[in-house]
Amino acid sequence: MKSKEIRLYLYKIWVLCLKDMKLYYFKGPTVVMGVLMPLFIWLTFVVGKGFSFTESLPMLIALASFFTSSSITPIVMPWEARQKTLEMLLSMPITIYIVLLGTALASSLFGVFISSVLVVIGLILNVIPRNLISLALGIAISSSCYSFMGLLFSAIPSDIPANAVMLSSAVRLPLIFISGVFIPLSDLPSYVRPLAFISPLTYFSDLINYSYSYDSLLNPLTDIVVLFFLTIISMVLALVANKRTLMRRL
Amino acid sequence: MSKDVVEAYDLTKSFDNIRAVDGVSFSVRKGEIYGLLGPNGAGKTTTIRMTIGIITPDKGEAYIMGYNVHEEPIKVRSFIGVVPEISNPYIDFTVWENLMLIGGIYCVPKEIRIRRAESLLKMLKIYEVRNRKAKALSKGMRRRLLLAMALMSDPDILFLDEPTSGLDVMSARMIRSLLLKLKERGKTIILTTHNIDEAGILCDRVAIMNKGKIIAMGTPEELKIKFGEYTRILLCFNRKVDIELIRKYFDSYETVVQGKRLTIICRSKDLREVLDQIICIAKEYNLNIEEFRATGLNFEDVFIRLIRRNRDEI
Q1: Phi-psi region of B157 (alpha: psi -120 to 50; beta: other; left: phi over 0)
Q2: Which terminus, N or C, of chain A has the lesser number of Cβ atoms within 10 Å?
Q3: Tens digit of pLDDT for each residue in A125-150?
Q4: How far is A131 from chain B (nearest CA, A)?
Q5: Residue B23: phi, psi to the nearest 5?
Q6: For range B269-277, the mean pLDDT
Q7: Which residue of chain A has the CA closest to B45?
Q8: How do the domains of chain A map onto residue ranges?
Q9: Is A7 on the interface with B (CB under 8 A)?
Q10: What is the DSSP string of A137-197?
Q11: Whole-prediction pTM value?
Q12: pLDDT average, residue stretch B101-118
């Protein structure tokens, strides 16, 4: 593929990303599942356990990144199908992959933005990360990974966004409890622990702990590499699954 | 000789073992308005979707400007503008934002994008509402916005699926006159419709589809000539006509009774016999004939006869 073509594709992905940002950042499901949900889960845990903000900030960042990045992608395709805009979009000089990558980018940037706001609030309150590079890399890669995970749920051939949100919640909520966010991995029952290692949240949670306290179960490089591969796997699965069910949406 | 800009060969598509389109072939010349005409479920929309590469045919191929639609979909779609039958602009965007989005997707440079959007909105008479959200527009305005969106890339070929469906008379008329203007500017237009009058007014050539197949093709005039052996008689009596009476006398002809009005379609060679019957009825039942007209078939009659003939053959 020529570099001019690649530039054009990237530009189109950006145009579609801007469209999704304007259209979906303030939609009900995005605000509820992406912003309010992690906030209330965090508050419940912090108040219950009596943790300080300093102690619980890494947990809040992990939750926020996970929920916000995976909040837009499940709803976009069903919403486009419902609003009858999908066919118009597909009749333009773009492929379904460009549409999906635009959506994934919008969702990732939402996760990066909310996580960055929390990091900045931490800095203001003197909660300073010890390794900013691992924190930034972790937020960037995990946001992409979660957004592609969310995109996978949007492949269900339904034009009701709530169906995709329900399915994604049914998978996302259990993942939190097996990923070492609330319960350290070492305290998990032995039969649950292997499951923790298929969850991207486990590696991000570990990486964020490292970034703030150098206290981590795995090597930070391992966390980054695994997160990167999980992102690629999620992306391929999401693109293939959505392409397969596309015809049933029209 | 005009060049074919759209070519479809043997397009075939089934959904759940039901054949929606069955071996459809047609070609469209540069600068003409070509109509796919047929009743609901005839396969018009599926044919359009296959022709522009939104769905892959089970069999057959389509070419636009010489490029294979399924091998080079991005290239092909850069030549075309499409208004799908059931589609909407982004309702939470303003009219202007919708146009800018489309301009962005087609990579139209910003200055040209702005100039073109202004000119299209003025031409379609929706410039005044450019800052209004699409959800606040009437159905006719939304349809005009969709047309403006399809024209944002200044395409050579326009595909319109039922462009005036569900619109009020004024909006439909406006869209039709706009399509004729676009034709004058050299655009090629392919439209689907089940509105026979619309096809007769707009289209240079039509293909009549039924049950997934093209059952007739030609100019509206050619199709009317094909049925030249038929005559349509229109009568208006001084009072309401009894349907049973008409059935009794004109059992072997196609008749429509509407109050005082009677329409009879007969073979031209039977015209004398039919006229004798009419005079006989008028005398016997003391009816005055206030209006009488004998014409060739109109396009609607041709369409109905073609569909019926096709149904009988099946």
Answers
A1: beta
A2: N
A3: 888 999 999 999 999 999 999 999 99
A4: 39
A5: 65, 45
A6: 86
A7: A250
A8: 3-248
A9: no
A10: HHHHHHHHHHHHHHHHHTTSS-S-HHHHHHHHHHHHHHHHHTTTSSS-GGGS-TTTHHHHT
A11: 0.83
A12: 95
